[in-house]
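Fill in residues.
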């Protein structure tokens, strides 16, 4: 079976998409579990369901980065009538307690992205007020290393090689048909 360039690129894209999909493991937490450590370079392999009684809460998720990274965190209220979260905030701090990024959320969701965080210790702080019957929220965090310049050089070199090979095949295909020009055709 002969693949065209488009088919090969599509096959590689589909394979990459399906291999990168992974199911997150749900971890159930309560106020007694905080502060909670996400470990080094947390990934989206875990999602956290956090349950609280009625009233104010303040949860800390500690983590560290081993290299410069982009980090994103989100929180989604899981409540309904009487279980709503109000005045929710999601804030990123460094080890010196300097606020780096924040967002507010309530019955919907909040998400914060912080790019180019240096290697070191950080924590996400999730605060809010649970409804009269208590409630829960879903929390997730993810980090990805910032690509180094060498990565971009290799990407561009690879794309250049693919372009060179494609151009060479196109030129070769055209030269294969050159011998069958108008002089070899008889329209009479």
């Amino acid at each position: 079976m002969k693949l065209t360039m488009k088919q090969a690129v599509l096959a590689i894209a589909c394979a990459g998409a399906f291999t990168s999909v992974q199911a997150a493991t749900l971890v159930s937490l309560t106020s007694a579990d905080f502060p909670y450590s996400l470990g080094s370079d947390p990934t989206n392999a875990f999602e956290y369901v956090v349950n609280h009684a009625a009233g104010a809460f303040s949860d800390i998720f500690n983590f560290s980065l081993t290299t410069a990274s982009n980090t994103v965190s989100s929180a989604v209220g899981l409540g309904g009538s009487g279980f709503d979260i109000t005045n929710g905030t999601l804030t990123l701090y460094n080890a010196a307690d300097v606020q780096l990024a924040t967002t507010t959320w309530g019955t919907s969701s909040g998400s914060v992205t912080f790019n180019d965080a240096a290697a070191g210790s950080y924590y996400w702080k999730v605060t809010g007020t649970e409804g009269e019957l208590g409630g829960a929220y879903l929390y997730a965090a993810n980090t990805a290393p910032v690509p180094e310049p060498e990565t971009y050089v290799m990407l561009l070199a690879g794309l250049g090689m693919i372009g060179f090979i494609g151009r060479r095949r196109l030129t070769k295909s055209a030269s294969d048909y050159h011998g069958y020009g108008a002089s070899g055709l008889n329209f009479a």
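The mean pLDDT is 77.
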